[in-house]
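Extended Data, panel c. Modelled sequence:
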Amino acid sequence: MLDVIYDALASVTLAIFLLIILAVTSILGTVILQKGNPEQYLMEYGAGLYKLFHFLALDDMYRSWWFLTILILLLLNITTCSIKRFPRAWRLMTQSPKVLDDALFKRMKHRGSVRRNIDPEKAIDEARAVIEKHYGKVKETREISSVTLYVDKGWYGRLGAYIVHLSILILAVGAVYGGIMGFKGFVNIVEGTAIDRVPLRGKNTAMKLPFTIQCDDFRVEYYPGTQQPKDYSSDLIVFRNGEVEQTKTIEVNHPLIVDGIYFYQSSYGVDRNSTVTLQVFDPTGNVAGPDITVAAGQSFNVMGDPSNYQIEELIPNITAGRPGVKVAQFLGNTHRDFYLLEAAPNRDKTRGGSVYFKIRDTNIREYTGLQVAWDPGVPIVWLACIVMILGLYIAFFVAHKRIWVRVDLDSDDSAVLIAGTSNRNPATFEREFESSLADLKDALKGKKG
């Protein structure tokens, strides 16, 4: 039973099957939001799909038991494949024949011979020169009846696949270590304020930072004539022990990095404590009541006006680089939205109500939303990438070539035999071998005893 399990784990078919499953699940993990808030899933997918995603752990797929099980099976498969096949590869690397006997010569696909009345010692010298020209340093095995010259080149080329396997194991270790020891969080920093704690995603705790991050300024650029953001950035200051350590303007995909902790520009918004002060006028332009200071989401009434008003949104840059306010008006069963613009103070007069409003002053502060991540497994992952590149280079570009040339020492009926083999690129090796055989024949012409 153990042998059956071992053979199943070492199956290439199992490896392909697991890789396909991982590829499909990775696509799902890219399409489906991971580790979001329940409100985000309900808004985007609806209650039914959210329940299904949560039941199947598709909302936190990379930490689910089934994904980790697939990953562990793949690692076991890679390990057992390597263990099962490595001894043969090691023998081929370290136990290459040093004598070209008749049996080995007949087994070789690439072989050739030259039979003449040739002085053996001169033939050895000529053969050595030809082989060194094509394949490099030559070793020699001398017997009573023959001398074998041989080259064992690129033996480490057989290690390429095993190095790639090792890189995958290192990659998995780095990913698991980073997932366990690292953290991810999200924090909003209002302009002019600082934080030293980051709420952790999916947890009710916060991570204390060994420094303080302050948002000095936040900027957003819109496409002309729209409220669609074109670009946004934050000026961040890092304080440590009361002193400025560094400053940086971050944008999307251009994070701030402090002590290996990444701060990514992720979102933005208006601080809920921001307020607007409105002036109230009657249709003739006379002041109809005291100024009103309200925040977003707050309702207010005006004496003599039966409507109920609510501030729906404070907009820092609505037109001409100046702020505006979106207001909802409720009268009985009717609902109407309108905008107040600081750049157009008399705009609301055309609404035709019993009163109209002007913006007297705004106290709008924006916040920058930062995604915070610390992954101590990143250096391990980088190491895995370097090892993988090395393994792939060796696997695809380094061939294990073995060449033998045997010179018989019988001066009456001497012969020179040449044979070779390569574990990859057979077409290229065949051309090299034919070229070396032709050079050997040319070199041995006229070398009489």
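The chain has a mean pLDDT of 88. This feature is highlighted in the accompanying rendering.
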